[in-house]
Structure formats: C-alpha cells, structure tokens
Amino acid sequence: MRVLIVGAGVAGLAARRALVRRGFTVKVIERNRSAGAGGAGLFLPGNGVRALCDLGLREGLFRLSHAVNSQRFYNERGRLLLSVDTNEYWRDVASCRSIRRSDLWQLLNDGMDPDDIEFRQIVDISSNNQGCHVYFADGCMDDFDLVIGADGVNSAVRGLTFKQAASPEYVGNVCWRFIVPNTCSVDEWSVMLGADRSLLAKPISKTELYIYADMSVDQASAGDYSYETPLLPLFEAIAGPLRPALELSSEAVVHFAELVRLWMGTWYQNRVALVGDAAHASPPSMAQGACLAIEDALVLAEELAATPGIEIALGRYQSRQKVRADWVHRQCAARDKMRRLPPAVRNGLLRFAGGAIYRRSYSLLKKPL
To answer: Which domains does the chain have, with CATH numbers?
Structure first.
C-alpha cells in the first residue's frame, strides 16, 4: 500500500511513524520548509505521553521534556483556587510533560528516512474506492492507495475533498504564545485567571518558561491584535509573579492566533482520511491538539494493518477516535463557558468543585485507545 501524508507537523510525522513501524510505504509532503522550526511550547497530559510512548519514543521524550507534577489555578489577585496533583490523577496512564514544539518535531523524526519528506504542494485530489490521483503544483501527478490530510485546521486536503465540510469557527478568543527565560521562578504549570483573560506559564526546561496568554475579543475586533501587540498593558492587572515574563515578551518570538473550533460529521471519503486539527480542531483549554493527533496516528495505523479493506479500516478509525475528539469538544465548550461566568461564581466553582470538574473532563481520555 502506498500512502501519501500531506503535512509534516506533529499529526503528519506521528502518522508516518506509526505507519512505517507497521510496514507501510509512506511519503510525506510539506509546503513549508520551516515546518519544524516554528511554534512555542506544548503541554502533554498523560494520554498524549502514553501515545508517544506507544510510538517508541519514551526515552527521547523524557530526555527532552520537563515534568508537570501539578496544575495550579489562581484568581486575578494571585489567590490559589485549585491545585491538581497530575501525578496522582494520571498515575495509571503516564506522567504529564511539557516540551518545545520544535523538540517534539525532531523527536518524531528520530530514526525516520529524511527522504520521506518532500517540499511540494498539492493542487487537486481525485479519489474513488480504488485509490487517489494526486496533482501537484509542479505539474506532476502520482497515484496512491490512501491520502492522509494532516495539514492543520486550514487543511488543503479537506478543502479539495470534503466540499460540504464546515469551515473553522472562531470561538471568541485571541491568544499569544512565546518562550522566555524563567526569571519568574515558576516551578509548575500555573494560570492566572482574570475576568475576560488568562495568563498561563509552565516550565519546559530547567531555565525556560512557556507563556500562553488569551483574551476574549469579539470577531469584529480580533483583527486589531497581532503578534506585535504589546502584552504588558493587556495582562498587567492579572500578571502577579508572571510580570517579568511579560516584560520579556518584546524580545521573544511571539506566535499569535485567533482560536477556532472545527467539527466534522465524517473524517474520511473514499481513500482520503483526515487526522489531527484537519479533522477536529478545538481550542487549547484541554491541551489535546497534539495528543489527539498522535492518538489518531496510532489508531489509523492499527486499523489499516489489522482490518481487511481500506474503507472498513477508515470507518473503524473514525468510530474509535471521533468519540474522544467529540468529548474534547464538549469539555472545551464547558470550560470556556465556566471561564466566562462572573469571576466570583467561577472562582467559587474552582475552589469547591474544581477537582471533580478536572477529573470528569479527562475521564474518557484516560481510557485505552
């Protein structure tokens, strides 16, 4: 079976690794020659770490990543509302970690053939139940048994193949991500919650701190913000001990985004399948973008190897993973709704019921794939 993966991000590289380990012939194409250099940091809850370990990457992951032993939630005045012992909660799955996105990209490439990745762009796909004709921007055409769209929330594969698919939907928040030296002495995942904005910090190494900041903004005003927006005036009131990190943001590489969600009824059509954000992008409040993408890769490879008939395998892949992705969508919506409650109500919920809310929100994801 010849497989083409479109996109060399986390989803695409995880899919390649999972398929190659099962004996498939795989080619990856990517239009961005800097695909592995960008991004900031990632938080990997236990299910994502388990998935990477299942890809054979445990040793490298624990060498390159940083332990997340607890998650701490503070109000805008710096009062601790909730502390979750992540080691205890995820004990039967895997420990939580944080990592540079570029380090994860390199880890997923470890031991793979660099010639598997070609820097080119697709312009059309013709698919039926026999295979796919793929047309490239350089004028060439090639045939594949299966095409996997792993090209993110603005997927070209989805646009070419799933003509009736919904477009990504703005969820009402903009965000900034960056990495700075850890001059704040933050030792664990910590978030400061304001009325309409939040500021999150987590160590990704002994000396570096990953910062995620988001703010509620109506769609008409979202265009007023960018990676160049000064962050200290926006978040100073809730920054507390994270103020030094904000002051350093002007010297950091800042990534800006409008947060979106994407829900699709089906993730495959004929011999074309979607994985990761191309199929089910959600806001980052559950930290499941990379985790679900890696899980998708594992399940898809398992079903293709074990199930007679590609279409049957794709159906089984979707039925197994869509349950988890739809769950994450619902939990993200519930979390975002809680965040928009009046601060006194939200803070009370976190103080007195936050542990139960956390345990429930991740309960399905603790289960085996």
So the answer is: 2-168+262-366 (3.50.50.60), 169-260 (3.30.9.30)
